Amino acid sequence: MKLDIFKSIDNLETVEEKSFWVIAPTVALLGLAGLTTSGSYGSIIPTIISAVLCLLIPVILMIFVLKYKNYHSAYPMLCICIGAISIPVTFIFGGGFFSGMPLFCVVSTCISALCYSRKWRYFALICCILGNFAAFYYVYSFGTPYPIVGESAIINDIVFGYVFASLAAFGAINMIVVEARKYRISQDALQSYFDTRVRKEITDKALKGDLALSTGHRKAAIAFIDISSFTTIAEKMSSDLIAEFLNEFFSMAGKHVHNHNGIIDKYIGDCIMVYWLQQDDNNCVEEAIRAVLDIRKEVRANAEATFTKFNTELNFSAGISYGDVIFGDFGSDTMHDYTVIGDAVNVASRLEHYAVAGELLISNNAAREAANLFELEMVDEDIYLKGKNQAISTFRVLSEKENANNLIKKPELTGYRLHVCGCRGSFPVSGLRFSEYGGETSCYVLVKEDYALIIDCGTGLKNANQYLKGVKKIDVLLTHVHYDHILGLLMAKLPSDTKIRIFGNFADWNGKNDTLAGFMEHPYWPVGLENFATNCIVLGEPINLNENLSATFYLSDHPDHSCVIKLDCEDKKICFFADCEDANKLDPAISHNADILFFDGMFDDNDEVSHTGWGHGTWQSGLSFAKKQKIKKLIITHHNPEVGDHTLHLRESMARETFANVSFAKTGDTYLI
């Protein structure tokens, strides 16, 4: 507590705050001194009362300020009390009431000039005058002053000296305080429009009387950060909501810019121009990129809350360039603008226009400064920026590189690896609210050496390509043929020289064996299944797929003859209940003591709409089933397309309170089997 008090006092800024912590303890000490001397003089009772008040009131106000930090109320109260109860102070100097009264009337009145507002200041002055006149009248009428020669003349001197000295001092201090307050307000106002460093330079020049236009040359990193599709967003909002939307983004972006020592140059509609001047001890490109990445991270983290509040998504694009600039004052004799100009500014602006939503593009010059710190990807196509005769090399910033010194060499992977390529249910979604858990529909890939097993071909199939390099044989297992589980076939780029087999419960689909062929035939789609060999499975009978790998299909309660799948992989049991409403209806032996269970947790037990009969489970029922079946690892999947990352985070946290080894599937997750 002691350290906190000293820290608080050390951080004081305003005149009122500093004055309070000088005056309040002083008055309390004077009140204490008054208690020890009041018995020597005539007017004992009012003196003791005022001494006690002089001691208690400052102490009470100090405690109040330490707790609530409210100087606006405490300081005027202190000024008023000093003026009204300063009687004992007059006795401390040994001259009695008449000799000490003028001095302390002046002091108490002058203190009132330091009050925050004009209203409080004059109220404190009036209280001081009335309080001191009342004290003067009481002691003069009822007290026993020392015999003094020419008493009437002295009284007149006291009265007139008090009035003129007090009012003169009050006026002088009031004028000084008002001017100081105006200066501080003007500085605070400038701070709202200019960066602190720019404001200081402008102020220093003004104090020196040198406001002439001046410029300098420096290397700098320039960034333009622009809200994506703002025109479309603004059409759906009221003007007040647009202002709130913009200000929230600007405040958040400004926080990260300042954290990384950037200077906000200007706001251009929904765009921010920022620059970092190169210093001897900093990499200004690194600072610029980190600021933008931090903004992107917070935008994604708050995506769900933003969508809920504004009924629209917030995303932005950014461009960063590095090079020589001219910085300083530009404009006319009557109006200046402190900014930076140069080719680097133009390039950064053009790159931002070229970038798509969520993308950060940097120039070749900036890439040279950042290549060792960030994962960069060269933009494939040539970019011809407006005003440039030649294409420039442009790079996309993906992420921050890991510290090479902290990397742990990973062991060689020789077993099966299971990758989640899509885990969304019913239909694919996109947007920042779905960026963490993913928006692609069901697809899982099991890979070992030159073999791959794909379970379901939802839109996540397009993410599978990165895991299929060098694969010579691919097997595909389809739990059923609802669109969200086969739509990826329309966009798949599977290796053309690879042998591909598809297994599914096709024979039960109205007796047809060409379900997929019908899905991908003319006029619905121009490319067929010529390279695929479809195979009808037999329920309950294992299919040997690869070395130490077999799959068994079992009918589930999901509509249209859907199946759950059990994989026996090496010595592990992996079950996919990705579309199943009541897993308790299945044979318990299928999943009992499974190493990994992918469970359909599309809905929530507390949903207002009843989903009975829809063919999908809840994440809570998955927890109960996993405990009952002694599942070692539970993965909730087939996420509701209407539920964003924030809600899934909350559900995952609550799930772990019930079942420790549970996670909600995310696109990009990998499991070693």
Number of helices: 19
Shape: elongated
Q: Gyration radius, to the nearest Å?
A: 39 Å
Strand segment count: 22
Account of the 3D structure:
The chain has 673 residues and is α/β, with parallel strands linked by helices. The chain contains 19 helices and 22 strands. The strands form three sheets. Strands 1, 2, 3, 4, 5, 6, 7 and 8 form an eight-stranded mixed sheet that branches. A seven-stranded mixed sheet has the order 14-13-12-11-10-9-22, with no helix packed on it. It is elongated and about 110 Å long. The two termini are 55 Å apart.
Question: Helix and strand layout, with pairings?
Answer:
Layout: H1 2-10, H2 15-37, H3 44-68, H4 71-84, H5 89-92, H6 96-112, H7 118-142, H8 151-193, H9 196-207, E1 215-227, H10 230-235, H11 239-259, E2 263-268, E3 271-277, H12 284-301, H13 303-310, E4 316-331, E5 336-341, H14 343-354, E6 360-363, H15 364-370, E7 374-378, E8 394-400, E9 417-422, E10 443-448, E11 451-455, E12 473-477, H16 483-486, E13 499-504, H17 515-519, E14 532-536, E15 543-546, E16 549-555, E17 563-569, E18 572-577, E19 596-600, H18 619-628, E20 634-637, H19 645-658, E21 662-664, E22 670-672
Parallel strand pairs: 4-6, 11-12, 12-13, 13-14, 18-19, 19-20, 20-21
Antiparallel strand pairs: 1-3, 1-4, 2-3, 4-5, 6-8, 7-8, 9-10, 9-22, 10-11, 15-16, 16-17, 17-18
